[in-house]
Structures are given as structure tokens and as C-alpha cells.
Design brief:
The complex is a heterodimer of chains A (about 180) and B (about 425). By secondary structure, chain A is of the alpha/beta class. Chain A has one domain (about 1-175): Aconitase, domain 4 (Alpha-Beta Barrel), CATH 3.20.19.10. In chain A, α6 links the parallel β2 (about 65-70) and β3. Chain A contains nine helices and seven strands. Chain A has helices spanning about 1-5, 25, 30-35, 40-45, 55-60, 80-90, 100-110, 155-160, 165-175, and strands spanning about 10-15, 65-70, 90-95, 115, 130, 135-140, 145-150. With about 425 residues, chain B is of the alpha/beta class. Chain B has a six-stranded mixed beta sheet, with helices on both faces. In chain B, strands 10-9-8-11 form a four-stranded parallel beta sheet. The chains are: A alpha/beta (about 180), B alpha/beta (about 425). Chains A and B meet through α3, α7 and α9 of A and α5 of B.
Chain lengths: ~180, ~425
């Protein structure tokens, strides 16, 4: 568990996006994805949030946080937006609340999404932040402001630690823990 | 303590006696999981390809159904590749041939799931990617897309859920007689509660107006829940639901209903007696106007179809307006029945003749134009559609405008080449 815990200590700077963030428009244009037939996180990362901030993929650094308001990832159950966030280097999404499909798809891709009441208020653009997923603790390293949240259950921490549900299942298959065809 | 239908279904599916919002559960389903063949596109349900790659078994291949539902024969994109990929995958992982519903026998997957009662009252029901699986919630089913996690479900036979809160929406009064339908009731509710109104929850549609609705209209009402921020939506099954399911399947099922004193995160009550035909102009899905506010907007394209507006009754409605009339030469109207079952019923009427004589294009049953997979829009074109989504590029060019409306408004507007109130034709 200690190994798991250290893997869940996240540090990065904040990028705040206000308003309703649609998975298929603001996060990453579904139309564009379909036209490009883009598949990898790397390819999709170049288009992350560009409808809101065209330079975002160039400015964001690996491990940075996206801080959002209510209903983050609104809309369809498309998962390309989650891949695009990962591809851009986003380390976690901190939001007042998340759309259920966005939350599920992100976690299954290994991207932590933390629903954290008061986070928008607690953060200014560019603030250095620290999140301990397993302990359910958030700290703004500039202001010292702290918030707490219910940590995700172990199976979700494991999924995130493994980089998503399929890396986890691949390991299980290799260890003979999934029935062979 | 009293429970909602959602809590009861998820308790049953997880083998627990009681669950509450926020609980994490491992759940199963006694229903098949369905996939549209779009799930096999390289950028869709990637997890599916992990199964042959890892050489692992699908937990129960008899409970996987693949439907040729999104592209149709006339699809202009890479649907042929995807269709073939789906068939190869099915062979490779051992899905029985009869579970692959091929071109000519398919339709929109969630509509077929309702029509054939693959989704059952009191059960969970899953699909790969499809945000509108809530459609079958009208049967009293907890239905959600598994999207990226669909492959994992196939390997394990279970998936995880965090029990959502329930949001009760009570529709009272009486639906206006003409020109206003379940779709307008949904848009009215969306206008009132906004894109956060159902946030994180399950919409539970109740009240005398829902009780009065036909199954076609209930499916339409239940199909768009995600735009309120909800995960999915459902209804408490009644005699109408049970009769519908029994006519469609011999599978046994045990319906569940909310207790009268169940607790809800939010309860909304709306009188729908005075609502008007509504329109969702581009580009935002949640900004709703009355048809009067956008009347006169010139258009050259129309689409009647999709899980919100492609049911049999919607075809009847379009036929009522189009009978004996002709489209202007510069207007293209695509009318796509949602499933082969609907098409067959249409063949017992003169609807197809009406549509063809009016100058409409009638593709084989599929999602089609809704997802920009056939009869695409070009830059500068303006379309009115009974579809789900209006964001730029959904049906082709990002420089085309999509207005969403009920099927009657679409038919009437296409006849005039501009957005118009359908009530004068009814």
C-alpha cells in the first residue's frame, strides 16, 4: 500500500477553466478526432482545450492540474477527451463536480478526476498544487489552503496507479488470472 | 427504508440487500451487452481489441450482440472498414453468428434493444459507446454505456458503478393536442433545469403526462438525459411497459418500482399543458427557444430520425404533414426509420409512398445523419433535425448550422424552406 500511496501524490500547477466544459467541444473536438482518425493520447493531446485556449497544449507542463467548475466533461460518453488530457500531460482534473461518463472514462484511462467542493475558490491561475489521492488531501502550495475529499476506493487507486483498466487487466492476464480462450 | 428504482436495480445487480448513493458496487447484468459496429472504429471502444490481443475469453459470448446501427448502407465515411472489423472481431473472440445483426437487419442499437426487449425491466443493461442508451430506461431498466470499460466488462462479466443520486421529474397537466411531443417536454425540462439540473444523477420520469405517453414517446423522452448532466434516465414500469416487453420477448423478468416515499436528491415538477414546439438552435445543446423565436430562419436540409425522433409514431407524424405535398427543389429531407422493425411497420402503410412522392430521401434504418455518417452537411448549409446533437461539425462541416426540433417541426419547416410552426399543418 505504501508504494501505491507514493504513486498517488501528485504535484503540478493549476490551469483554471470556467463554465460548462463539454467533452466533445471544449476538451477536444469530436469532429476533429473523427476527421483525423486520431487514436493515440499523443496525437489527441495536441488538440486539448484548444477551442478555449489555442495555446494550451504548448503551455501545459507534465503533471499540471486542470481545475474546473461544475459538471466537468458534460455530454456524450466519448473518451477521446480523456485521452487528449493525458496526451497533453495533464496529471489530474480537479473539479467541483464531474459528468458521470467523463469520470468513469478518465479513471479507466488512468487519469484521476477528483470532485472537490471549493476547489475553484481555493485556486488562482498557475498556483502550485499538491494532491494526495489515497489520503484525500488537497493543498495549495502557494496559499497553504487545504481541502479534503473522500479518497477513491482501492480498486480505483490501483487502476490509476497501473495507468488504466487495460494495463491492469493485461497484468492479470499475464499472471494467468483471467481465463484463456 | 424506502428505495428508488435505481437503488433497487443496483442492489439486485450487485447481490446486496441495500445500496445508497455514493456506494461503489460491482454489478452484473442478466441482459446481453450490445455494441453498435461503430464501437469497433479505431478511435472508439479500444478495450475490445485487448481481448484477442491478450487471448482471454469473453465471459459469456452468447450475451454479446453487435448491431449494424450507426452507418447504414449509404454511409460516406469509413463505415465499411468498421463493419468488417466488427465481423472479424466477433469471429475471433467466438461471438455466435446470429448475435451479429448485419446490414439490412439492424438499426440504431438502443432502439433495437427496446424493440426486442434485450433490455429488461428491473435489470442493468450495458452497451459500448452510446450516450443515449438511457432510451431503454423507459422500460424500467438501469442502462448505461460502458464506453472505454466495455472490453473490461467482457473479460470479467462485471463492471463497477458508483451509485448515483436520483432526480425525480414529475410532469403534470396535459400535453397540448397538436404539434408538441415528448421531445418538446424534454427540451422544456432542459430549459427549466439547465445542463446542471440532473447533474451526476439518474432522472426518474414520473407523473400523469408520462403515464399517458405511448412507449415510442417514452423512449424519446428518456433518450436525451445526458444533456441535463445526468448519467442516464429511467421510468417506473406500468401495465403498458409490461405488455410491451411481453410482446417482444419470452425472457423472464421481474420489474422493480420506486417506493412512494423514496428519497430523491432533487424533485422537479413541471406543468406541460402550455408548452409550445421548441427548437434548440446552434451551437449550444442546452439553450432552448420556442419555434416562434426562430421562425423564418432559412434552411435547405432536414433530418427525421435518431433515437429521439425516429420511432414509428414520428414517421406517422411526418407522413401526416408531408402527404400530398412536395418539398421545394432546393431542400433535402432525410427521413430514416430507426430500426428495420419500424420500417416493416411502415410498409404496411402508405408512408413510404408519401415520403418518396414528397421528394424525401429514405435511407435504410441507421443512425446516419445524426452522427454525420451519411447525407453530410457542407459549409453554409442549414439543417433542422429531430436528432440529439447540434454542436458544430456533428453532421459534417463545422460551418453548417444544426437546429434541433420535433419531427413535425422538421417536416413543416422543410416544406417551407424556413423554420416554421408545425401546428398549422396538423
Amino acid at each position: 500500500m505504501s508504494e501505491l500511496k507514493s504513486a498517488q501524490l501528485l504535484r503540478g500547477n493549476a490551469w483554471i477553466f470556467r463554465g460548462l466544459i463539454d467533452i466533445d467541444y471544449e476538451i477536444c473536438s469530436y469532429n476533429l478526432v473523427r476527421d483525423l482518425r486520431a487514436d493515440t493520447a499523443e496525437a489527441l493531446g495536441k488538440f486539448c482545450m484548444v477551442n478555449v485556449d489555442p495555446d494550451f497544449p504548448k503551455k501545459v507542463r507534465k503533471g499540471d492540474f486542470i481545475v474546473a467548475e461544475e459538471n466537468m466533461g458534460y455530454g456524450h460518453d466519448h473518451d477521446h477527451g480523456c485521452l487528449s488530457l493525458i496526451g497533453a500531460g495533464v496529471g489530474a482534473v480537479l473539479c467541483e463536480s464531474a459528468a458521470p461518463y467523463f469520470l468513469r472514462n478518465s479513471i479507466e484511462h488512468g487519469l484521476p478526476v477528483v470532485e472537490l467542493r471549493g476547489v475553484v475558490e481555493a485556486v488562482s491561475q498557475g498556483d502550485p498544487l499538491e494532491v494526495d489521492l489515497a489520503a484525500g488531501r488537497f493543498r495549495n502550495l502557494r496559499s497553504g489552503k487545504q481541502l479534503s475529499f473522500t479518497p477513491p476506493p482501492d480498486f480505483i487507486l490501483k487502476m490509476i496507479g497501473a495507468g488504466g483498466i487495460y494495463p491492469l487487466l493485461t497484468r492479470m492476464a499475464q499472471e494467468g488470472r483471467l481465463p484463456k480462450r | 427504508m424506502a428505495e428508488t428504482i435505481t437503488e433497487k436495480i443496483l442492489a439486485r445487480a450487485s447481490g446486496k440487500s441495500k445500496v445508497k448513493a455514493g456506494d461503489y458496487l460491482t454489478v452484473k447484468s442478466n441482459c446481453p451487452i450490445i455494441f453498435g459496429h461503430h464501437s469497433f472504429d479505431t478511435f472508439m471502444d479500444r478495450g475490445l481489441h485487448m481481448i484477442p490481443r491478450l487471448g482471454v475469453r469473453v465471459f459469456d459470448s452468447s450475451k454479446v450482440i453487435i448491431v449494424d446501427g450507426h452507418g447504414g448502407a449509404s454511409s460516406g465515411s469509413n463505415i465499411a472498414d468498421v463493419r468488417w472489423a466488427a465481423q472479424k472481431w466477433a469471429r475471433e473472440v467466438g461471438i455466435p453468428l446470429e448475435n451479429v445483426i448485419n446490414l439490412g437487419r439492424g438499426g440504431i442499437e438502443n432502439m433495437m434493444s427496446a424493440e426486442r426487449a434485450w433490455a429488461l425491466p428491473g435489470e442493468t443493461f450495458f452497451q459500448g459507446c452510446n450516450g443515449h442508451l438511457s432510451t431503454v430506461g423507459a422500460l424500467g431498466t438501469f442502462a448505461c454505456a460502458l464506453s472505454h470499460g466495455a472490453g473490461a466488462y467482457l473479460m470479467k462479466g462485471t463492471t463497477w458503478v458508483r451509485v448515483p443520486v436520483s432526480v425525480k421529474i414529475v410532469l403534470t397537466g396535459r400535453m397540448p393536442e397538436n404539434g408538441v411531443y415528448a421531445r418538446d417536454a424534454f427540451e422544456y425540462v432542459l430549459q427549466q433545469i439547465g445542463p446542471m439540473g440532473g447533474m451526476g444523477g439518474v432522472l426518474e420520469w414520473c407523473g400523469p403526462v408520462v403515464d399517458e405517453m405511448s412507449m415510442d414517446e417514452r423512449f424519446s423522452l428518456s433518450s436525451s438525459a445526458i444533456f441535463t448532466g445526468a448519467w442516464t434516465s429511467l421510468m417506473n414500469p406500468d401495465e403498458k411497459t409490461i405488455a410491451y416487453v411481453k410482446a417482444a420477448t419470452k425472457q423472464p423478468f421481474e420489474p422493480l418500482r420506486s417506493d412512494p416515499d423514496a428519497q430523491y436528491a432533487r424533485v422537479y415538477e413541471f406543468d406541460v399543458s402550455k408548452i409550445e414546439p421548441l427548437v434548440v438552435p446552434p451551437p449550444k445543446r442546452h439553450i432552448v427557444k420556442t419555434v416562434r423565436e426562430v421562425e423564418g430562419v432559412k434552411l435547405n436540409r432536414g433530418f427525421i430520425g435518431s433515437d429521439s425522433g425516429g420511432w414509428f409514431e414520428h414517421m406517422q407524424l411526418a407522413a401526416r404533414i408531408l402527404k400530398g405535398r412536395k418539398l421545394p427543389p432546393d431542400v433535402i429531407l432525410n427521413i430514416t426509420p430507426g430500426t428495420v422493425g419500424i420500417l416493416l411497420r411502415m410498409m404496411d402503410t402508405d408512408m413510404l409512398r408519401t415520403f418518396v412522392e414528397a421528394g424525401c430521401c429514405v435511407p435504410d434504418p441507421n443512425e446516419g445523419q445524426e452522427a454525420g455518417l451519411n447525407t453530410l452537411l457542407c459549409a453554409g448549409e442549414v439543417c433542422i433535425a429531430s436528432a440529439q446533437t447540434n454542436y458544430p461539425g456533428r453532421m459534417g462541416s463545422r460551418e453548417a448550422d444544426i437546429y434541433l426540433a420535433n419531427p413535425a417541426t422538421v417536416a413543416a419547416s422543410c416544406l417551407e424552406g424556413r423554420i416554421t410552426d408545425p401546428r398549422k399543418y396538423l
